Amino acid sequence: MGFEFSEVVSIKANLIELNKAFHRIHLKVAKRVALLAIRKVKKMTPVDNNILRPAWQYDVIKRGDTYIIVIYNQTEYASFVEKGHRIVVGGRTVGWVEGRFMLELTGNEMERIAPNMWKIEVEKEMRRIFGN
């Protein structure tokens, strides 16, 4: 049993191409996860005057080999809807409004499904490069 040197050279070239494709794969998956998260968080956001829901935005930030997805809403009262808030009447706290946790729940779901989305894209790229 033997091997051809040209096969080793071919494998090396394929691995180099796969390494270069990783950045593109990571960015593609990060953007896909971010867009899915935006859709989910918007669905979970309560509509009162239709200001909070359309204000959701995202950024994908690369730090070293890590891609960070930042989902945010700059509406002044977004954090109160997310985490809950006191009801104050005449300077006294008279109750509590429970938070909706739309961002937290969406983040938890994305953390659960993102690895599988990444795995599918890497496998697809490996099949393309290695021809299987």
Give the SSE map.
Blueprint: H1 5-44, E1 56-63, E2 66-73, H2 78-83, E3 84-89, E4 92-98, H3 102-130
Antiparallel strand pairs: 1-2, 3-4
Write up what this structure looks like:
This protein is α+β, with helices and mostly antiparallel strands and 132 residues long. It has one domain. It is built from three helices and four strands. A two-stranded antiparallel ribbon has the order 1-2. Strands 3-4 form a two-stranded antiparallel ribbon. Strand 3 and strand 4 form a beta hairpin. Helix 1 runs antiparallel to helix 3. The longest helix is centred in the first third of the chain and has 40 residues. It is rod-shaped and about 85 Å long. The two termini are 22 Å apart. The relative contact order is 0.15. The mean pLDDT is 92.
- How many domain modules? 1
Shape: rod-shaped
Please report the total strand number as a whole number.
4
User: Biggest sheet, strands in spatial order?
Assistant: 1-2
What is the count of DSSP helices, taking H or I runs of 4+ residues?
Answer: 3
Helix content: 55-70%
Largest sheet: 2 strands, antiparallel
